[in-house]
Design brief:
By secondary structure, this protein is α/β, with parallel strands linked by helices. Helices cover 44% and strands 16% of the residues. The protein contains 20 helices and 13 strands. The chain has helices at 11-19, 48-64, 80-89, 105-110, 118-122, 132-136, 160-165, 174-187, 201-210, 230-240, 250-253, 258-266, 280-284, 324-334, 337-347, 354-363, 368-377, 386-392, 395-404, 410-427, and strands at 35-42, 68-75, 97-101, 139-140, 143-144, 147-152, 154-159, 192-195, 216-219, 222-225, 270-276, 292-295, 311-317. Helix 2 (48-64) runs antiparallel to helix 15, helix 9 crosses helix 10 and helix 19 (395-404) packs antiparallel against helix 20.
């Protein structure tokens, strides 16, 4: 496996990508069986275990396909939109296979970037056991545009030693969660009570959903923003209340994203954090190993579970690849049952295959809070190509950051976000 050279992206290239049309012209006319396959995968907080699993898969692939080699690059999640858009518009420099978030599927398909692999997916024996929700995450208008890699859901990580020392227990409601965070901060000012981030959209949305809010509602064949409803505003206000000197100071926490909050918890700087099943390996490798537990994030009403974002990542072959057969084979190997089992062991990623997930649950009890959260009813973003634009434009993080920094009140910030969302939905019709 080749390691890519780390080159700075010229400003001119960024400018050209920004000016290029959003849709890529086309499909490659060749299907070479030798040569270099370029793969982009996401970089995790603790990436080494993932790299080791991938290296094993790639080594087996290269042994099977003489004359083919694989170059893997791990890209930051936060800048994926710019990198992928540039790849769609410049096939000559594009990878053959990418990892992408399941919220990006519809947008990437509309942009013409992903290859239709319906036939190959249907002929893949492993696909029979794919969770229906995971399969839906790679499906647009009945066609399949990739293979699910893992499903992700978030829950509440908390320090058992800190809460015990202060006579506190795991919170049973969001009001109790906020109160517990403040009690910890008061007694242990060197700690964040609950690490939160103004740029941590998927950590904030459970507060919106738990208060009865929605991101958007169906409007015929499109959507209309609902983030400025009174119920949604109540959830925004609840999350925003956690930014302050009595928990997580806005000066430090307003710019934090999900990885930063997990890092704060894992390094012993926070008593609680909202983290995913996919955060388990990073936490285990941190300073809090052996001194934490996980429970579902509580809802607004005592004893309930807050709806969580049904996240996860997929793998997709680009339409522009000149190695389609090889890329599809590598996609199925990287997303197959054996690899998903190893990624669970290495990273804690929940498998998308129902039988492999059941095996994982029997093997590792830590997944139970996440499975319970899924069972309580997870939520998803609107299934619209507009979501890629909304996500890439940082509409929701901007809204939360405006509120927690005091630049705007909840009503003004949510109204502004709703207008931006509606403009994106209208443009996607």
């Amino acid at each position: 496996m080749k390691l890519p050279a780390r080159l700075a992206v010229p400003i001119a290239l960024i400018t050209l990508a920004a000016c290029a049309p959003q849709t890529s012209g086309g499909t490659a006319t060749t299907d070479a069986k030798t040569g270099t396959l370029r793969v982009w995968l996401f970089r995790e907080v603790d990436n080494k275990p993932k790299e080791q699993v991938v290296e094993q898969v790639v080594a087996a692939f290269e042994r099977q396909h003489e004359g083919a080699d694989v170059e893997v690059e791990y890209i930051p999640v936060d800048t994926r939109a710019q990198r992928v858009k540039a790849a769609f518009n410049d096939p000559a420099s594009a990878p053959d296979l990418i990892e992408y978030g399941n919220t990006d599927t519809a947008g990437y398909v509309k942009d013409g970037g992903l290859a239709d692999v319906t036939a190959e997916f249907g002929a893949w024996p492993d696909a029979e056991d794919t969770d229906p929700t995971a399969r839906a995450s790679v499906t647009v208008d009945g066609k399949v545009y990739g293979a699910p890699l893992f499903v992700g859901v978030r829950a509440l990580y908390y320090r058992t030693d800190v809460l015990k020392e202060l006579g506190l227990t795991a919170p049973k409601s969001q009001d109790e969660l906020i109160a517990t965070a403040r009690k910890v901060r008061k007694a242990r000012p060197e700690l964040y009570g609950l690490a939160v981030g103004g740029a941590y959209t998927y950590g904030a949305l459970p507060f919106v959903w738990a208060h009865g809010g929605e991101l958007a509602t169906q409007d015929g064949t499109s959507y209309r923003a609902a983030i400025n409803s009174e119920a949604a505003r109540a959830g925004i206000a609840a999350y925003a209340s956690l930014f302050g000197d009595d928990n997580c100071p806005a000066a430090k926490c307003a710019q934090m994203g999900g990885n930063a909050t997990v890092t704060a918890f894992a390094s012993g700087k926070a008593a609680m954090a909202i983290g995913g099943d996919f955060s388990h390996a990073a936490v285990e490798a941190g300073a809090v190993k052996g001194a934490y537990a996980v429970v579902p994030l509580p809802g607004a009403a005592p004893g309930t579970i807050a709806p969580a974002f049904a996240g996860g990542n997929n793998l997709g072959v680009l339409r522009s690849t000149s190695h389609r057969t090889l890329a599809v084979d590598l996609m199925r190997r990287l997303a197959g049952k054996d690899t998903q089992g190893r990624l669970f062991d290495a990273m804690g990623f929940l498998p998308t295959f129902t039988d492999v997930r059941q095996q994982a649950a029997r093997k590792e009890p830590f997944v139970k809070p996440f499975i319970d959260t899924l069972g309580a009813g997870a939520r998803f973003v609107p299934a619209s190509p507009a979501w890629a634009r909304i996500d890439a434009s940082l509409v929701l993080p901007t809204m939360f950051q405006e509120v927690v920094s005091g630049r705007k009140d909840v009503r003004t910030a949510s109204d502004d976000a709703a207008r931006k969302m509606d403009a994106a939905f209208a443009a996607a019709r």
